[in-house]
Amino acid sequence: MNAKEYIKHLLSIENYSFSLDEIAQATSGSSNSLKFELLRLSGKGEIVNLRKGYYLIITPRYSSAKKLPLQLYCEKLFIHLKRNYYVGLFSAAKFHGASHQQIQRDYLITEKPKLTDISKNTIDIRFFTTTHWPEKNIQQKKSDAGIFKISSPALTIVDLIHHQTKLGGINRMLATIEELTEELTESDLAELLNWYPNKSTLQRFGFLLEEIGVAEKYQEMIYTELKAKNFFPVFLSPKSNERPGAVNNRWKVDVNVKLESDL
User: What is the C-alpha end-to-end distance of the chain, expressed in Å?
Assistant: First the structure.
């Protein structure tokens, strides 16, 4: 079997990516001839080298985009990398129907150490890490290639708020958060409050819900959780070299940025 035949076989079983080791084991011929064949297929745009030793198969359907939707390969990629992951941030929001932000970039959250971002031609993937790997609030969704993992609406919201400074600021995500609250459920939020360790992010979450004027019951759930512990003033938009001043809301959030939703 040569590389082209093996790729055809993979597509027949709805498999859209492969590692160099995997294709080397499945094909006959020398490693040099395989590398030459993969280079030729890359030149024709039939495959794309995503990262060292890992390739995506670009089917005719996606040939003009020159990339694949994330859900068709992320599960297999992370099995190959032997790492935990979930689709997060604006990418997860899009799957939950909050597609206000028309993003061309894909966002994945992984365990530490952080993976190098991928930016080549039309492929743009940003990797984020989290100190506390979630045991809960990671959902499984189905794609043509099988299951993939994604943050629940509650986890997506807190991740957006937590990483706001790396994502263009709170106003860029306000409309997305508002849309995500429509997908939020009590069980999803209760599960998050059960383990989520970052109190300052929860303060901002509760404050934003109140500002947006939605989901009073969710505001109370967050406030009850915070009240059970000590919590201290925080900036709405984190600043490392300053301390928050006087606060006049129950969330103890110092509003240091003017909120402007573009919904």
Answer: 54
262 occurs within a structural domain:
no
Task: Supply the mean pLDDT for the chain.
Answer: 92
Strand 85-87 vs strand 106-110: parallel, antiparallel, or unpaired?
Answer: antiparallel
Q: Strand ranges (DSSP E) for 40-145?
A: 47-51, 54-57, 85-87, 106-110, 118-120, 123-129, 138-143
- Which residues lie across from 124 on neighbouring strands? 119
Same-domain status, 38 and 85: no
Q: What is the pTM of this model?
A: 0.92
Residue 56 lies in a domain: yes
- The answer to whether residues 154 and 247 belong to one domain is yes
34/28 Cα distance (integer angstroms): 9
The average pLDDT across 90-98 equals 93
Other Cβ atoms closer than 10 A to 230: 7
Domain span holding position 146: 70-254
Say whether both 14 and 122 belong to one domain.
no
Amino acid 145 reads A
Q: Is residue 40 very low, low, confident or very high in pLDDT (cuts 50, 70, 90)?
A: very high
Amino acid identity at 246: A
Residue 16 and residue 145: Cα distance in Å, rounded?
7
Indicate if 196 and 157 belong to the same structural domain: yes
Question: For 124-177, how does the pLDDT look when each residue is reduced to its tens digit (9 = 90+)?
Answer: 999 999 988 998 999 999 999 899 999 999 999 999 999 999 999 999 999 999
Asked whether residue 146 falls in the same domain as residue 169, the answer is yes
Give the tens place of pLDDT for each residue, 9-21. Answer: 999 999 999 999 9
